[in-house]
Amino acid sequence: MPQTIYVLNGPNLNLLGTREPEIYGHATLADVERLCAETAASLGLTAVCRQSNHEGELIDWIHQARAEQAVGIVLNAGGYTHTSVALHDALVGVQIPTVEVHVSNIFARDSFRHHSFIAKASFASLCGFGIDGYRLAITGLAARLSAGAKA
């Protein structure tokens, strides 16, 4: 039976494909979810993909990931990356290996985007690869899980 990972997307990611395409590209959230499902399946994992514009709902899903014994989380917290101690605390609390993802290079943008509360609760962070960052995150997560299983 495949192991489950949660792919969680935060505020405004439902607007992918139409919101600032010069920054975020033309791929849609449906494209992201399809990429994640295909990548996870190729690695023997199942991806549960969810998006919310509400911080509390994202926290509830992080807690649900633990309750359902998910083996990993890929999180693009959007703007909450730079503001949410609550998301940080939820990730630390569930102790599930997490990869932070951003479609754009947050360090090449506004200075307020250079700080991440999510990074401190993640074992890896990816930014600037467009939606391919999700594929890279899932691949890296699978490699970490495999390495942990061999240890």
TrEMBL record:
InterPro entries: DHquinase_II, DHquinase_II_CS, DHquinase_II_sf. The keyword Amino-acid biosynthesis applies. It catalyses: 3-dehydroquinate = 3-dehydroshikimate + H2O. GO terms for molecular function: 3-dehydroquinate dehydratase activity. Pathway: Metabolic intermediate biosynthesis; chorismate biosynthesis; chorismate from D-erythrose 4-phosphate and phosphoenolpyruvate: step 3/7. The active site is at 24 (proton acceptor), 102 (proton donor). Its EC number is 4.2.1.10. Keywords: Amino-acid biosynthesis, Aromatic amino acid biosynthesis, Lyase. Homododecamer. Catalyzes a trans-dehydration via an enolate intermediate. Belongs to the type-II 3-dehydroquinase family. NCBIfam families: aroQ, PRK05395.1-2, PRK05395.1-3, PRK05395.1-4. This is 3-dehydroquinate dehydratase. It comes from Rhodopseudomonas pseudopalustris. The gene is aroQ.
